[in-house]
């Protein structure tokens, strides 16, 4: 008879890999320890209920913010803690491994803060970034439209200058935290004839006249992270709410996706790691990690594959995050490869873990079916993985074209 093994018995670090930990400095290891402590007591115990009720994980997120862990990558003078991209990805991985919805709220806060940091004025910095770091404000990033997702230049939302104001008209969809955001970094065109050179970013506050929220969309996974439609009907905001110069929004969106794609990659690794751990515990509890009978050996071989896949993805994640920290220019192609690989691994490992569990893979209490549902979205948002493949292929072509003739 096998001994029942639970996550509480083994601890969240029991299946860590020494090779992955070699990529972490003292600061990153300390962040991992602190995040795990909060996740263990405040995030993981709520995850199943958050998913079942599609309830916004405010308590889970606020616990991370209260512990000073919500603004890792923001400057200290703006309420953050000035940590590296590696530390941020480590935190994202840990949160996602426990609750995908909480990790999505967590990363959306920084996806809103990041473009404000990159292109905002000091007044805009002081007005919004500290609140996004301490959890007193919720933020959103509004790019996607029904006919313009990964193709930012195709957006139809427009902004017309009217004296000291701008008047915005259009619709946005699939906006994370859009129904409760205190500030929205919203992209619109000041001149659609100029294509991407007309795209401009604006800071739209909650309650702005002409801004309304449509449906909160039902989703396959990440159910606790609200995703809403936004409508702008002669929405009037002051010109001081413009983020950067007119026409600078497209470049800002490209710079911003480095952060968001690394977030999705970290989620993918977290989902894969959690699914692998659940599968390993299940196999141990069913006597499949010992013995040589065929079904045991099949399980052992599959777990060996999953473990190797997770480790490889973690290596890619940490190495790319380190490159983002050190590179003089944004490593767009490397980030695309990281996002592609890590999110694909998140989906592959979670569904293969379900296969290993057989009928038990569909049991809510084991959590693997939730992980698999949550993981699927990472291949779609922050630039679909097909877009990542196009970026990588384009870089291959450019490298060959620049190669001196032999």
Short description:
This protein has twelve helices and eight strands. It is α+β, with helices and mostly antiparallel strands.
Let me know the CATH homologous superfamily of the largest domain: Butyryl-CoA Dehydrogenase, subunit A, domain 3
CATH topology (level 3) name of the largest domain: Butyryl-CoA Dehydrogenase, subunit A, domain 3
Q: What percentage of amino acids are in beta strands?
A: 5-15%
Instruction: Spell out the helices and strands N to C.
Output: HHHHHHHEEEEEEEEHHHHH
- Helix and strand composition category: alpha+beta
CATH architectural arrangement of the largest domain: Up-down Bundle
Q: Using the coordinates above, name the CATH class of the largest domain.
A: Mainly Alpha
- Please work out how many helical segments DSSP would assign: 12
The value of Rg in angstroms is 22 Å
Assign an overall shape: globular
From the N-terminal CA to the C-terminal CA, the straight-line distance is: 68 Å
Low-confidence stretches are: none
Summed up, the domain count is 3
Task: Enumerate the strands of the largest sheet in spatial order, edge to edge or round the barrel.
Answer: 1-4-5-8
Number of strands: 8
Q: Kindly state the mean pLDDT as a whole number?
A: 93
> How many strands, what sense, and barrel or not for the largest sheet?
4 strands, mixed
**How much helical structure, as a percent, in the residues?**
40-55%
């Amino acid at each position: 008879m096998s001994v029942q093994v639970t996550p509480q018995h083994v601890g969240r670090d029991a299946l860590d890999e020494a090779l992955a930990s070699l990529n972490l400095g003292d600061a990153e290891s300390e962040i991992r320890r602190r995040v795990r402590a909060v996740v263990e007591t405040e995030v993981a115990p709520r995850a199943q209920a958050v998913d079942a009720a599609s309830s916004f994980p405010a308590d889970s997120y606020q616990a991370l913010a209260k512990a000073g862990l919500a603004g890792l990558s923001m400057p200290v003078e703006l309420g953050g803690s000035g940590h590296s991209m590696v530390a941020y990805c480590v935190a994202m991985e840990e949160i996602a491994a426990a609750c995908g919805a909480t990790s999505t709220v967590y990363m959306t806060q920084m996806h809103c803060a990041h473009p404000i940091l990159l292109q905002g004025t000091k007044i805009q910095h002081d007005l919004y970034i500290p609140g996004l770091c301490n959890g007193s404000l919720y933020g959103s990033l509004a790019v996607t439209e029904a006919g313009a997702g990964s193709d930012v230049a195709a957006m139809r939302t427009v902004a017309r200058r009217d004296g000291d104001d701008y008047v915005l008209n259009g619709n946005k969809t699939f906006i994370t935290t859009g129904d409760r955001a205190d500030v929205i970094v919203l992209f619109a065109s000041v001149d659609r004839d100029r294509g991407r050179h007309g795209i401009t970013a604006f800071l739209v506050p909650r309650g702005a006249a002409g801004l309304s929220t449509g449906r909160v969309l039902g989703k396959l996974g990440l159910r606790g992270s609200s995703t809403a439609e936004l409508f702008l009907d002669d929405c009037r905001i002051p010109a001081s709410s413009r983020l950067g110069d007119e026409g600078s929004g497209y470049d800002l969106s490209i710079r911003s996706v480095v952060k968001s794609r690394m977030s999705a990659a970290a989620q993918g690794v977290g989902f894969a790691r959690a699914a692998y751990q659940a599968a390993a515990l299940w196999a141990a509890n069913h006597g499949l990690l010992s013995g040589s009978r065929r079904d045991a050996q099949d399980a052992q071989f599959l777990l060996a594959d999953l473990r190797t896949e997770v480790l490889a993805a973690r290596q890619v994640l940490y190495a790319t995050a380190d490159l983002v920290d050190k590179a003089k220019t944004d490593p767009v192609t490397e980030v695309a490869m990281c996002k592609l690989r890590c999110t694909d691994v998140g989906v592959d490992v979670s569904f293969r873990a379900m296969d290993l569990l057989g009928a038990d893979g569909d049991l809510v209490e084991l959590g693997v079916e939730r992980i698999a549902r949550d993981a699927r979205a990472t291949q779609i948002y922050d630039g679909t993985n097909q877009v990542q493949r196009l970026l990588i292929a384009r870089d291959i072509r450019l490298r060959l074209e620049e190669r001196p003739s032999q």
